[in-house]
Amino acid sequence: CCGHYHVRMGATRGLLLLSLSALFCWVTADIHCHSCNKIPVLGCVNRQSCQLRPGHRCLTTNVYLGKMWLYSKLRCGTSEEPCYEEFDKIDHKLGLNYNTTCCEKDYCNSPAPRPTPALALVFLTSLAGLGLWLLH
Questions:
Q1: Do 16 and 78 fall into the same domain?
Q2: What residue stretches are annotated with the UPAR/Ly6 domain (predicted)?
Q3: How many distinct structural domains can be found in the chain?
Q4: Is 12 helix (H, G, I), strand (E, B) or coil?
C-alpha cells in the first residue's frame, strides 16, 4: 500500500514539475522587445523587434550629456550583454551619463523619452546653421 502511494506521488510530482516547466517556457517564449537606436528629431532608427530568451530581460539605455538627452539604445538582453539596471553611470572621458532600465513584459522597453520642443528647435537650428556654414 505505502510503496504504491509513493510511486503515484512521485509520478504526480514529476508531471507537475514538467507542466510548470513547459508553462514557463511557453510564457517567456512570446515576449518581444523593441530594438532600435533612438535619436532626437528622427526617433527610432533601424526599428526592429527581438524575441526575448528565457532568463533575460529587455534593455533601454538612455545617454545624456548633462541633462540633455542625446540618444537611446533599445534591445534584448543576451548572455553576452545581460541587463543590469544602472542610473547615473558616468563616462568621465566623454562627460556622458548612462541610465539603463530592464523589464520582462512584451514590448515593455518603450522608446525613450522625447526631447522637449525647445531642445528639438535648438537641434534643428544648429543643423541649419551648420548647413549654411558648409555652403559658404
A1: no
A2: 30-111
A3: 2
A4: helix
Contact 84/101 with Cβ under 8 angstroms?
A: no
Per-residue burial over 17-39, b = 16 or more CB atoms within 10 Å of its CB, e = otherwise: eeeeeeeeeeeeeebbbbbbbbb
What is the DSSP annotation of 66-100?
A: TTEEEEEEEEE--SSS----EEEEEETTTTEEEEE
Measured CA to CA in angstroms, residue 35 lies from 13, 21, 113, 117 at distances of 40, 28, 15, 25
Q: 3-class SS at 34?
A: strand
pLDDT, tens digit, for every residue of 73-125?
999 999 999 999 999 999 999 999 999 999 999 999 986 455 544 555 555 55
Check whether residue 71 and residue 104 sit in a common domain.
Answer: yes
Shared domain check, 130 and 91: yes
DSSP-derived letter for residue 110 is P
Radius of gyration of the chain (CA): 23
Tell me how far CA of residue 9 lies from CA of 2, 18, 19, 70, 124, in angstroms. 11, 14, 15, 59, 70
Grid cell at residue 32: 518581444
Residue with cell 517556457: 25
| 36 Ramachandran zone, left/alpha/beta (phi>0; psi -120 to 50) | beta
